[in-house]
């Protein structure tokens, strides 16, 4: 180890460690807006982490950026001298010179890292603000999922790193130099035309409101307060385990009951569960898988993750025939909520508006696919991300902490099984599918229902599972994160991957860490494992744990769809993909 002093206190640091890292380990706060250790990102561009250092034996001090200056034996580091405080403040003021000043209208208001740092340095004036320069910056509203607003960008480049090195989509690129530096798209004139798949992982690391979901909270209020409209709300498997955090609850708290109650307090008429749709998906996708196995078509790849679908369409169009045609659970709930539900409840389908709460930005993209609607009317009308739903509740004066939990009461589309809930974490769709496929093949349930051998967290996992009967052993794989997905797709193209069934989730960790989830300032995906543990716990305690045993799903087939993969099921619950 190396001996240094921070603010006069002797500490040990690791060789090659940066000043920022050593200070942080010893609980000395140094502000930064560009560095993000979790993605190995230290570009030194924001220059807010200035500190004053003195080499041993030297009288003079000088200023360095802590994020990219290594420690040295005997180094004395000062983080709070007047000189440091003044220079940090000046640096933040310079960033503000080229930053839209309208915080009150920003999606990040109240949870912005630039606001935090401005408070930390005690910013009181804004002498260099250049409204003409800011007005010349690009604002890109082309994507149905997200907004790229260069009037708020501080050019930290975290988004570029996540997209290039972790998701390996490489849609973003630094453009221009000096004062004209900005973040642009590598291909295409705007986000919609580009190779971006709207996974939203870049949004999770953006320190400001430069990258954000497209805010649609007002549309939801329009529906709720329209007396002519019946509002139906569904929420995704992962929402219940990640939503409490926005209200200060520990990561992974299960707030399903509070969400149901909050939705009713908002004025929503019918609260449904996307988990019900996940159980239906298993019936459809499992049947489809068995047909494809019988026809020796392989692999079959899951199709519930919309950023993965975008990725396949844009980056691997030649592999589209391998994708399951089954729609995602959100799309399934939308289609059934506008057909079966109104028939059962005596409602006018034309007056129903379906609102989804999803941990995902790409789900906003999914619902505008023309093939996921009927005669130009979308099955799902609006998607709010986890973040927007939190904002909506706060706008309406609702605090999740003081809401009495409730339970579902819809007798047609709210029951779910343990299989449905684990969809929200990597490997869950596979595990849910195998529980049902095994029963179909063997006529009896799996003895060991938790397929714990599938529950690792490595980027790509594979296993061989004996399904018995006329199917026998099947080779399966699960990938999460698009970097890992790309590697797997390349292996398939090269004929080096021999699998029967593959689950893909575009976000690392699966939906529990979706691009629409709450942003943790300063860390990338810190809560995945806690959220996932809670999901497995819900499954473990569920009375019914296989999709085919869901009584409401059975009724749906008995009263409406006929059998899985029937003509009606095909019409309502399957889709196609285009390159
Ligand atoms: Fe997901 Fe899915 S699990 S895609 O990860 O198949 O978003 O949670 O809702 O549709 O069910 C997301 C989560 C979600 C769908 C389901
Ligand atoms: Fe890249 Fe995903 Fe961001 Fe698009 S949404 S720019 S693919 S990280």
TrEMBL record:
One of its GO terms (molecular function) is ferredoxin hydrogenase activity. SUPFAM superfamilies: 2Fe-2S ferredoxin-like (SSF54292), 4Fe-4S ferredoxins (SSF54862), Fe-only hydrogenase (SSF53920). The keyword Metal-binding applies. Keywords: 4Fe-4S, Iron, Iron-sulfur, Metal-binding, Repeat. It comes from the Bacteria. Residues 1-83 form the 2Fe-2S ferredoxin-type domain. InterPro entries: 2Fe-2S_ferredoxin-like_sf, 2Fe-2S_ferredoxin-type, 4Fe4S_Fe-S-bd, 4Fe4S_Fe_S_CS, Cytosolic_Fe-S_CAF, Fe_hydrogenase, Fe_hydrogenase_lsu_C, Fe_hydrogenase_ssu. This is (2Fe-2S)-binding protein.
């Amino acid at each position: 180890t190396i001996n240094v002093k921070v603010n006069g206190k002797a500490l040990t640091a690791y060789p090659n460690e940066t000043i920022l890292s050593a200070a942080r380990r010893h609980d000395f706060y140094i502000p930064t807006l560009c560095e993000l250790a979790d993605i190995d990102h230290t570009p030194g561009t924001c220059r807010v982490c200035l500190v004053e250092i003195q080499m041993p034996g030297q009288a003079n001090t000088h200023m360095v950026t802590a994020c990219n200056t290594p420690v040295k034996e005997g180094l004395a580091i000062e983080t709070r001298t007047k000189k440091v405080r003044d220079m940090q403040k000046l640096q933040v003021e310079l960033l503000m010179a080229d930053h839209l000043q309208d915080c009150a209208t920003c999606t990040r208001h109240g949870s912005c890292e630039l606001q935090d740092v401005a408070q930390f340095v005690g910013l009181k004036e804004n002498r260099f603000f250049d409204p003409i320069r800011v007005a010349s910056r690009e604002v890109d509203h082309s994507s149905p999922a997200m907004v790229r607003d260069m009037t708020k960008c501080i050019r930290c480049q975290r988004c570029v790193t996540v997209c290039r090195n972790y998701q390996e989509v490489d849609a973003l690129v630094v453009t221009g130099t000096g004062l004209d530096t900005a973040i642009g798209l590598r291909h295409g004139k705007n986000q919609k035309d580009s190779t971006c798949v709207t996974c939203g992982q870049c949004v999770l690391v953006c320190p400001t409101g430069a990258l954000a979901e497209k805010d649609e909270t007002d549309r939801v209020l329009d529906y709720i307060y329209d007396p002519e409209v019946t509002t139906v709300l569904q929420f995704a498997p992962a929402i219940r385990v990640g939503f409490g955090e926005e209200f200060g609850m520990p990561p992974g708290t299960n707030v399903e009951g509070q969400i149901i109650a909050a939705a009713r307090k908002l004025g929503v008429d019918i609260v449904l569960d996307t988990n019900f749709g996940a159980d239906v998906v298993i019936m459809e996708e499992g049947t489809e898988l068995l047909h494809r196995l019988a026809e020796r078509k392989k692999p079959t790849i899951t199709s519930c993750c919309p950023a993965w679908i975008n990725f396949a369409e844009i980056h691997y169009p030649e592999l589209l025939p391998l994708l399951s045609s089954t729609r995602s659970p959100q799309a399934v709930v939308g289609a059934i909520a506008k057909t079966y539900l109104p028939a059962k409840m005596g409602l006018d389908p034309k007056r129903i508006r379906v609102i989804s709460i999803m941990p995902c930005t790409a789900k906003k993209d999914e619902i505008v696919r023309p093939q996921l609607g009927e005669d130009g009317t979308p099955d799902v009308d609006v998607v709010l991300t986890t973040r927007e739903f939190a904002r909506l509740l706060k706008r309406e004066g609702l605090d999740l902490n003081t809401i009495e939990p409730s339970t579902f009461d819809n007798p047609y589309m709210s029951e779910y099984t343990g299989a449905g809930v684990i969809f929200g974490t990597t490997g869950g769709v596979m595990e849910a599918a195998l529980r049902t496929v095994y029963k179909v093949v063997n006529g009896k349930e799996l003895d060991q229902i938790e397929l714990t051998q599938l529950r690792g967290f490595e980027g790509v996992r594979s296993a061989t599972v004996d399904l018995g009967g006329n199917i026998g052993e099947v080779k399966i794989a699960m990938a999460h994160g698009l970097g890992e997905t790309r590697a797997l797709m390349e292996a398939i193209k090269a004929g080096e991957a021999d699998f029967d069934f593959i689950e893909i989730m575009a976000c690392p960790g699966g939906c529990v860490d979706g691009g629409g989830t709450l942003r943790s300032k300063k860390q990338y995906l810190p809560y995945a494992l806690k959220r996932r543990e809670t999901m497995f716990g819900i499954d473990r305690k569920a009375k019914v744990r296989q999709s085919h045993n869901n009584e409401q799903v059975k009724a749906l087939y008995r009263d409406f769809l006929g059998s899985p993969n029937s003509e009606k099921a095909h019409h309502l619950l399957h889709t196609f993909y285009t390159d």
